[in-house]
């Protein structure tokens, strides 16, 4: 396995000299910045930016977002008890199925409730367009090298700062027992259930709601920027980055979140960003299984 691949798949055991750290920073940083500018232009062809939702949808969406993220966990803890708490990955298939079902129900409720009244604007966040999905697939393909560059930069920066590095425990646990049943459960959880729930919670409800509240109908730049900053920061922080050994993941997660938010904001629909997220998680999980 090459040093670069080892760094990507198992950074905790990757060897990286000072010279390699400097080379990675010199090459990957400009690649990442220029690449994001290109992705931004490409995403702009998917539609006009403006993925705000109404205040009513935001207020109703907050408890629905919490349900999408947490209800599957709660149901399994209550129904299975200590067995689930001790080995959650054994129930990944059940978790992914419950999370998918819960999120679809929450999305249906948010798209059909009468709270906004008769003069409410259309709710485009459930709209499905083949052109946008095709454009999102191309965007993801071009975005993969940027996430790779961000990952290499994150590891190099952590090594330079002397920070500890550990592989994400979720990936470690999901790929620890590569039997057909566990593989199916891992993909159901990480590639289907989690991306849909996170896009519903972080992009549609959190970003869409903040964009509507902070930017208003006139799309004030400061409000838009604040909506981006807050929603992206919460998404990155929600992935365990308060732990020093996980800080190296901040840059790749930041890069991913920026692209996901751009895709949602341009398409105003949950499905393109969910597709992008699914493709990303699917690639990561497949590479992790190859390592296992």
Q: What does this molecule look like?
A:
- This protein is mainly alpha-helical and 292 residues long.
- The chain has one domain (3-291).
- Helices cover 74% and strands 0% of the residues.
- The protein has eleven helices and no strands.
- The protein has helices at residues 3-9, 18-43, 55-80, 82-86, 92-112, 130-161, 169-174, 180-215, 221-237, 250-267, 270-291.
- Helix 2 runs parallel beside helix 10 (250-267) and helix 9 crosses helix 10 (250-267).
- The longest helix has 36 residues, at 180-215.
Put simply, the count of helices is 11
Low-confidence stretches: none
Spatial shape:
globular
Gap between N and C termini, in Å?
13 Å
Order of H and E elements: HHHHHHHHHHH
Question: Helices and strands in order, then pairings?
Answer:
Layout (H helix, E strand, L loop, with lengths): L2 H7 L8 H26 L11 H26 L1 H5 L5 H21 L17 H32 L7 H6 L5 H36 L5 H17 L12 H18 L2 H22 L1
Helix pairs in contact: 2-6, 2-10, 3-5, 3-8, 5-8, 6-10, 6-11, 8-9, 8-10, 8-11, 9-10, 10-11
What attributes characterize this protein structure?
mainly alpha; 74% helix; 292 residues
Question: Brief overview, please?
Answer:
This protein has helices at 3-9, 18-43, 55-80, 82-86, 92-112, 130-161, 169-174, 180-215, 221-237, 250-267, 270-291.
């Amino acid at each position: 396995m090459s040093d670069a691949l080892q760094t990507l798949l198992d950074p905790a055991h990757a060897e990286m000299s000072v010279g390699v750290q400097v080379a990675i920073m010199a090459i990957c940083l400009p690649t990442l910045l220029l690449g994001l500018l290109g992705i931004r232009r490409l995403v702009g062809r998917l539609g006009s930016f403006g993925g705000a939702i109404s205040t009513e949808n935001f207020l109703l969406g907050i408890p629905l977002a919490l349900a999408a993220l947490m209800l599957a966990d709660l149901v399994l803890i209550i129904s299975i008890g200590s067995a689930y708490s001790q080995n959650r990955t054994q129930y990944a298939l059940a978790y992914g199925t419950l999370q998918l079902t819960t999120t679809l129900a929450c999305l249906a409720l948010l798209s059909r409730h009468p709270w906004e009244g008769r003069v409410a604007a259309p709710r485009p966040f459930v709209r499905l367009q083949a052109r946008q999905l095709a454009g999102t697939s191309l965007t993801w393909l071009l975005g993969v090298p940027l996430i790779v560059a961000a990952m290499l930069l994150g590891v190099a920066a952590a090594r330079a700062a002397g920070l500890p590095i550990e592989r994400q425990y979720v990936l470690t646990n999901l790929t620890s027992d590569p039997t057909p049943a566990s593989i199916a459960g891992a993909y159901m959880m990480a590639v289907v259930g989690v991306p849909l729930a996170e896009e519903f919670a972080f992009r549609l409800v959190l970003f869409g709601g903040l964009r509507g509240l902070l930017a208003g109908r006139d799309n004030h730049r400061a409000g838009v920027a604040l909506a981006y900053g807050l929603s992206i920061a919460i998404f990155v922080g929600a992935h365990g980055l308060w732990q020093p050994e996980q800080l190296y993941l901040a840059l790749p997660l930041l890069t991913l979140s920026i692209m996901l938010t751009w895709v949602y904001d341009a398409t105003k629909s949950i499905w393109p960003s969910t597709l992008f997220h699914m493709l990303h998680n699917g690639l990561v999980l497949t590479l992790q299984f190859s390592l296992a």
